[in-house]
Amino acid sequence: MNKFSYEQGELLASVFNHWNVEYLFIGKSGAIFYGFPDTTQDADIFPAKNPENGRKLISALRELGYELNPEDELHLIAGKDFIQLRSGPFDLDLVFAPDGIETFADAQSRSLMIDGKFPVASLDDIIASKRAANRAKDRESLPRLEAFRDYLRSRNLTALPANPSESKS
Amino acid sequence: MNSKFNQKQEWEQEFDAAAKRSLRERMRFAFISTYKPVLDDSKLRVFDTIEEYREWCQKNLPQYLGYWR
Question: pLDDT-derived band of residue A169, with 50, 70 and 90 as boundaries?
């Protein structure tokens, strides 16, 4: 299994855009886009839950190389709350109904486009979702994640610069 | 200095260091790949509800993976 990387993120964003998939990065992978220095193993995607978006998602995932059978496709069209994919180029968790977030539209209205290409749920939403999930790994990471949000706020930043050398010049 | 203050300072130093790296570099360090027992043993899992997924994690995954509530 390949690690998720910037290049794979770019490819995912490009393919999802091509198919007009409505989605946001969320979870710790989302926080990493903001600059949160931590580790994770998979990318978490929050897709809009509607049949049309599900069909677009199927086309995009197929193009990325994920193996999907007809039954899997029905799950994606139905927008089952949680789908864990390990059948493609990198591990992907599709979370159609993340804890602590009312609707996709709400989250999208608060989201940020990182580096001009990565749509990411707001840090507040990522934190709210982890707080509501309340697993051991969430409880462990929350204080540091909240400190990171405070760090950004105290410096009037929405995210760490994607290219610090360019932002200095 | 108390330990809470030290912890905050330590984290801020880590955030300062992260701010000097590009997103590309940060992602190279952030995404890791290690085998997670049970969780990685299936190509696809589907759960009707998040609650069902949480219960499955609680019943099937080793506690040390951190997915238990």
Answer: very low
Q: Tell which of A2, A3, A26 to mutate to test the B interface (max B CBs under 10 Å).
A: A3
Q: Do B33 and A162 count as a contact with CB atoms less than 8 A apart? A: no
Q: Do A147 and B53 lie within an 8 Å CB cutoff?
A: no
A8, A84, A108, A154, A162 from B53: Cα distances, Å = 27, 10, 24, 37, 34
Q: B residues 26-55 near A, CB within 8 Å?
A: 26-34, 36, 39-40, 42-50, 52-54
pLDDT score for A12: 97
What is the mean pLDDT of the segment spanning A116-136?
96
- Exposure string of A124-162, with b = 16+ CB inside 10 Å and e = fewer, is ebbbbbbeebebeebeebeebbebbbebbeeeeeebbbb
- What per-residue confidence (pLDDT) applies to B2? 73
Report the residue from B28, B29, B32 with minimal CB separation from A41.
B32
C-alpha angle with apex A120: A115 to A122, nearest 5 degrees? 115
A92-108 residue pLDDT tens: 999 999 999 999 999 99
Q: Report the predicted TM-score, pTM, of the whole model to 2 decimal places.
A: 0.94
B32 vs A6: CB contact, 8 Å cut-off?
no
Does residue B1 register a pLDDT over 70? no
pLDDT number for residue A168: 58
